[in-house]
């Protein structure tokens, strides 16, 4: 098998909890607590989970937008986890991000043309004329008219702004794009347009995606493989079809059974876990899921389960899978 | 006084024969020179006792404005804009004074919002917030209301009601806050609960719990629910009937089973097709609805969906179609509806 484009091993991101008065460190949030992931060229890995599971922090740490506390991030074979900003510069072009709310991430005082030309200016690519051509080509790629370059972000609808966000991410021809809930803020009819656009661009440009999402139905349409996170840890990783139809981890099963289906009368027998997701600042001992798990055993409260390979490409971190 | 609470008994009984709620030709046109924003544009629907009507639409469809209007929660100068009737138990809420309306709010009709933290009072204990409407509307003693408040918290599935009753909202998790909000809304056993995106801010496992809770509370108390959401999957699981809104109007209304099995309006059909579903072998591309929802200032003269519609005919651009029955209980506003 070819070497993966991205390989994350033992990734940790810890945030200090400080006292209000003296700013003394009184604890640690293990937002990302030993995450292993790999993404092949041209592949989509989805990172799913509920709020506080660490999926967004993982995505930002991979891009070094948040400093990792430990672990390795191998991109194209090179570990960039401890690279300096200068060492990172060539990698910045190759990895990009698309945010949930494109409006918050587009400078309201710049024209769309200015926003899309900025990456070329920063990386000193082409002259003014050449950049204008590139901007027009980018707009065409994401299905916007060339006149869009002269307008400002507020003149566009949510779906069009997300197209602009995608165009900006594609400007420097990256190999990997991390999508952080890229369609979550969009209406369902527009969501389908953006999902289809991202899939078409992947096929045309050979992009790899890390798709961060809480929406399992969306993920089931875009992912090749899925990693499920709970309170900072990956609990299950599997190929798309296996994850959705043959999940082994009780949390994955619970998550899937909670997804409402647009079919009246088909209300499946739910095994929805009781209670809310605990705070990541004080996760339960052992397996973090054990207080909500219908299959919890004494061992689950004492010992965090290691990830075990149960089938090709299918890893589960659960004591039920122990030999 | 015309409030339902003060009507003679036989008049209330007579009103109970018809629908609990009848909204007729509700219109909110907002002048923003040089435009008039037709935010809600002639909305009519009825809701029966104990029934759940899902009001579904995308952003800008006017669904939340409809809810705020019928709760009389719009602030000036918007409060002056609505026209039409909102008849609840025989009383037109649109003609009540603010004092008369506040006598009904929390007692006959209550509302639950998307983000409970913005509607809970941060400096009042959860227990007092549930007890207060019972003291005010039902004349319960503070001691009695406090006991009933704990009972309500137990009913909405809060594990340690005595402790939570004494807690302030910020100490509760998102799911617990939404449960507390539901307890407050249902404390006086209102005939109508308006729920505006009640689970949108919640994680999917918590959403499932809250939807189950709303259904259980409806069985327990018998309230009718007007459920406002953008999520058709939530509607499929929760509603008895559905009204689909587009650009300020109801374009289709039907019992939930027929709406999902045989949508007649091309917008409803497109919306249902574009929802991603978990499937073993999904199609490589999701069906899209081309274009986008027109803004409230740029609505076309005829059917607002015509520019995006694959079945549009010349007359669709000329004149807006009326919402007409196509089958028993099934209405659609379309010149060229899909086959049933």
Automatic annotation (TrEMBL), chain A:
Protein's cellular compartments: Cell inner membrane
Keyword Nucleotide-binding: yes
Residues in ABC transporter domain copies: 17-256
Keywords: ATP-binding, Nucleotide-binding, Transport
Gene3D superfamilies: P-loop containing nucleotide triphosphate hydrolases
GO biological-process terms attached to the record: peptide transport; transmembrane transport
SUPFAM superfamilies: P-loop containing nucleoside triphosphate hydrolases
MF-aspect GO terms: ATP binding; ATP hydrolysis activity
One GO CC term on file: plasma membrane
Family: Belongs to the ABC transporter superfamily.
The protein's name: ATP-binding cassette domain-containing protein
From TrEMBL, chain B:
Source organism of the structure: Neoroseomonas eburnea
GO molecular function: ATP binding; ATP hydrolysis activity
Family annotation (InterPro entries): AAA+_ATPase (IPR003593), ABC_Ni/Peptide_Import (IPR050388), ABC_transporter-like_ATP-bd (IPR003439), ABC_transporter-like_CS (IPR017871), Oligopep_ABC_C (IPR013563), P-loop_NTPase (IPR027417)
SMART domains: AAA (SM00382)
Domain (ABC transporter): residue spans on this chain: 21-272
The name this protein goes by in its record: ABC transporter ATP-binding protein
Keyword Transport: yes
Organism placement in taxonomy: Bacteria, Pseudomonadati, Pseudomonadota, Alphaproteobacteria, Acetobacterales
Pfam families: ABC_tran (PF00005), oligo_HPY (PF08352)
Any one annotated GO CC term: plasma membrane
Keywords in alphabetical order: ATP-binding, Cell membrane, Membrane, Nucleotide-binding, Transport
Family named by the database record: Belongs to the ABC transporter superfamily.
Membrane topology type: Peripheral membrane protein
Keyword Ligase recorded: no
GO biological process: peptide transport; transmembrane transport
CDD domains assigned: ABC_NikE_OppD_transporters
UniProt subcellular location: Cell inner membrane
